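for the writeup, i need someone to sanity check this before i put it in the appendix. the sequnce is what the collaborator sent (i think, or maybe the updated version? ugh). structure was predicted straight from it, no edits. if anything looks off just tell me and ill rerun, i have time this weekend
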Amino acid sequence: MNKFFKILISTFFSFIFTYTLGFSSEEKIKIGLLVPLSGNDKEIGQQIIKATKIALKDLNSDKLEIYPKDTQSDPNKTIKSAIELKNIGVKIIIGPVFYKSLNYLDEIKDIIFVSLTNKTLNLPNNVISAGVNATSQLNTIKKFIELNNIDKTIFLTPKVNYEAEIKKAIKQSTIKVFKQYVYDTEPTKLTAQIEKITNYKIRKQNLLDEIKRVENSDLIDKEKQLDKLKKKYTLGKVNFNSIIISDFDESLKSVITSLLYTDVSPKNKFIITFNQWFDESLLQERNVQPIYYPSINKENLENFEKKYYKEFNENPNYLSLLSYDLVGLIYYLSLNTNLIDINKLFNKKNSFKGKIGIFDIKDNKINHRLNFYQIKDGQIKKIF
């Protein structure tokens, strides 16, 4: 972590709608914080505030003030809180957390919202997505594919609400994809689709035909060849050598299980997924390994988790780490640009090293330079 992250805080939050962290008679850098502090998502919001406390402590600057406000994960409450922040002179806001809370924010002028969402489609002009977006992940996957000279990659996307986001990311990353498929997550339909994608029935029939041919032949080593064939599940190659699956959790495991059923194994094809946030359940699933995915720096994440646990005796969510970095990012940018010129902050090309990794900033966009990991034999290994 760079030297920007040394910080002091004078107060912490109490359970009211307005909080103020840090006081000084000098002019401050006022950072708004729009997070859910009530309702079903309040724990997320409270952990984000705790992370900003750690950020302030690490930055060791008395020039920062953070003003949290409740969104209730509701667009109407979000804009009301955003107006309240504008009225006290806030020019830049971390948040909201969720994409649905971005509605109506384009009605507020002269404020930049650095949202924790990873969605980038149809954002208001004054909202910057700071989450680990699909483009950042595909840029990292592209690097891995090029390093391994992989020439035929198919892309599998579930039929869900981020399908358009994936299509945009593929175009922006310029990753070479041999074929793209959209699949149904319902197990029976999924298996049928994977069978079609992998030409399973044809390859299965090829095997049966070859067994029959050898059985009816006069080959000297007929029994040996038959024994060899009967150990196979299919005969014939698939027309790809890597698979990118933009899925998560049990749905991801279902896709890989369907691939195994059709005799496409991670042991002979690269199985690449999106960021799994070091899901430990994947370590136990030896049959889906090896599996590859981009993610934030694991060592930095673990160090932050230890620091957070020592401070609050609880484990943080991943959005906490992102909000920690964003406090440092805004502070860093403000050293070079007055917050009055808010639009310049994220327009010019900049890079910033945080706990999550390196942020690349340009044209009101944030992308992440991610690391790349392999899960194999129950272990996580960093590739680059």
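The chain has twelve helices and 15 strands. The chain has a mean pLDDT of 89.
thx in advance!!
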